[in-house]
């Protein structure tokens, strides 16, 4: 981005995704810390991408759109003050690439924010660590938004989606059935509980806030998309939860993946294909809330969180 000198840089960080099927192996290898996946693992991941949208990569387009949307929002609220850059965890431009781009453009003051509302040392914390190290190396003074899981505009955007999802279910074949709302997020290794990590607590706080705003009383939290490692991950997984709900006679479920902000593999495959098929097998009608993507309220959440983290310094 040119003409950025004198502006505050905004490093918008997210997980990243391949740009094409040809990039899947390199992407998977990066996730596995340089260890190439076994042929069957690689094929399974490719098959999932093909299954959701024929090999198109929606997260890349969605993330680009979110960065552009945030730039537009900041420019509207604070003309000429901010310049957004993208930094991805597992794909180009990497987090370090985004910081280097800032330095080339003469940015000396910046804020980092992750497209994930909830903090864990194993997730958002790793993005911040990488950005902080690179910024220090290049002489950029960088602050960070660690979480924004209870921002009123985030809660409002999610409330709208839960109410819309409930309306869809009410008009459908399971319209007369009581609905169980299942809030979910990406699982992490169980050891985060021993570490006193705030991730699980923040997710429950968001779930409770959204449920109250939408007047939902019948809800629970579940996990999804756990990694395949030898250590135990947080559960129960949504597939296990669906089995439990079947035994309780539940016939209608609204999946609300509040830990995610964009349409991507964990939503389009893990929920829309895998969980939906499991629910149907168990006689449960499952719908999912729409994702935030470039929702204006989400863009405002990000913009206001960025400005808020700088406010104390402005007062000094």
Automatic annotation (TrEMBL):
Keyword terms: Cytoplasm, Heme biosynthesis, Iron, Lyase, Metal-binding, Porphyrin biosynthesis
Record InterPro entries: Ferrochelatase, Ferrochelatase_AS, Ferrochelatase_C, Ferrochelatase_N
Amino acids binding Fe(2+): 186, 266
Reaction catalysed by this enzyme: Fe-coproporphyrin III + 2 H(+) = coproporphyrin III + Fe(2+)
Pathway: Porphyrin-containing compound metabolism; protoheme biosynthesis
Chain residues that bind Fe-coproporphyrin III: 15, 32, 48-49, 127
Superkingdom as given in the UniProt entry: Bacteria
Location of the protein in the cell: Cytoplasm
Gene Ontology CC, one term: cytoplasm
Gene Ontology terms, MF aspect: ferrochelatase activity; metal ion binding
PROSITE patterns: FERROCHELATASE (PS00534)
Coiled coil: none
GO aspect biological process, one term: heme biosynthetic process
EC numbers: 4.99.1.9
Function, as annotated: Involved in coproporphyrin-dependent heme b biosynthesis. Catalyzes the insertion of ferrous iron into coproporphyrin III to form Fe-coproporphyrin III.
Family per similarity comment: Belongs to the ferrochelatase family.
UniProt name for this protein: Coproporphyrin III ferrochelatase
Organism annotation: Paenibacillus oryzae
């Amino acid at each position: 981005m040119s003409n950025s000198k004198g502006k505050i840089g905004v490093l918008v960080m997210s997980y990243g995704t391949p740009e094409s099927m040809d990039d899947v192996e390199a992407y998977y290898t990066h996730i596995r810390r340089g260890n190439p996946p076994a042929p069957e693992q690689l094929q399974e991941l490719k098959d999932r991408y093909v299954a959701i949208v024929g090999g198109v990569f929606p997260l890349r387009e969605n993330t680009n759109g979110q960065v552009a949307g945030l730039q537009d929002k900041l420019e509207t609220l604070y003309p000429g003050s901010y310049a957004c850059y993208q930094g991805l965890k597992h794909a180009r431009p990497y987090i370090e690439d985004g910081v280097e781009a800032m330095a080339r453009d003469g940015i000396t003051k910046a804020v980092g924010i992750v497209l994930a509302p909830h903090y864990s040392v194993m997730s958002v914390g790793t993005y911040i660590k990488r950005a902080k190290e690179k910024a220090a190396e290049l002489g950029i003074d960088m602050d960070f938004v660690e979480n924004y899981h209870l921002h009123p505009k985030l809660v409002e955007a999610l409330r709208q989606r839960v109410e819309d999802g409930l309306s869809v279910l009410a008009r459908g074949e399971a319209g007369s059935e009581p609905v169980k709302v299942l809030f979910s997020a990406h699982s992490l290794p169980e050891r985060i509980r021993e570490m006193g990590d705030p991730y699980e607590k923040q997710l429950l706080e968001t779930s409770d806030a959204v449920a109250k705003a939408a007047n939902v009383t019948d809800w629970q939290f579940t996990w999804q998309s756990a990694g395949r490692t030898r250590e135990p991950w947080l559960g129960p997984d949504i597939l296990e939860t669906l089995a439990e709900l079947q035994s309780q006679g539940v016939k209608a479920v609204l999946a609300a993946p509040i830990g995610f902000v964009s349409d991507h593999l964990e939503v389009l495959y893990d929920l829309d294909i895998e969980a939906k098929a499991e629910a149907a097998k168990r006689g449960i009608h499952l719908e999912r809330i729409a994702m935030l993507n470039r929702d204006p309220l989400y863009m405002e959440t990000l913009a206001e969180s960025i400005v808020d983290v700088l406010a104390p310094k402005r007062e000094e």
